[in-house]
Amino acid sequence: NAGVTQTPKFQVLKTGQSMTLQCAQDMNHNSMYWYRQDPGMGLRLIYYSASEGTTDKGEVPNGYNVSRLNKREFSLRLESAAPSQTSVYFCASSETGMNTEAFFGQGTRLTVV
Amino acid sequence: GDSVTQMEGPVTLSEEAFLTINCTYTATGYPSLFWYVQYPGEGLQLLLKATKADDKGSNKGFEATYRKETTSFHLEKGSVQVSDSAVYFCALRISAGNKLTFGGGTRVLVKP
After folding, report:
1. What is the mean predicted confidence (pLDDT) over A78-99?
2. Res. B16: pLDDT tops 80
3. HSE (CB half, 13 Å, CA atoms) of B13?
4. Would you give the DSSP letter of residue A100?
């Protein structure tokens, strides 16, 4: 079972470069999320998609864009990377519902220099 | 807005000690509550959950009770093992549609 797959696992960017983080899930979940994890700050929601064709801003959306390409895939794009975007990024998915479990990918460690 | 507050870590314990991690929440409405665990180098995974007041979630020796009157969901384990060393996150979901809101995480280190 692949679950939630994120690529790449590690990335180093120079300030101003762009990149796309890829995420795919094979559980037929409606909802997908992008979080960033910073020391002492827990997980903060960047964007989420409650269903295919919809996306909504989370707590920290500035500097990011997302695309829900289809039900399986949800990508996160940094158009012009900044050092403040150095973080660990997690993609997650869940079925619709108050009580459903969210499944997380292994994370992408991004460093912007 | 909705928020989750956890005790700051790190929490350092000896094996077989009792563990408590405090979690309180602020929410409009009646959330579902979750504890997730993150082992080193991995993503988060669900540890337990509770969906209504006075529910108790339990898994792997961990327990947490949904206390509406104190808006709390404290995590407890009676006898920790070295393998319980991880970061623990309290989280809530307020609606079916659907985002999870996380606390800051508590790092737990269990020494032999």
Report:
1. 94
2. yes
3. 22
4. P
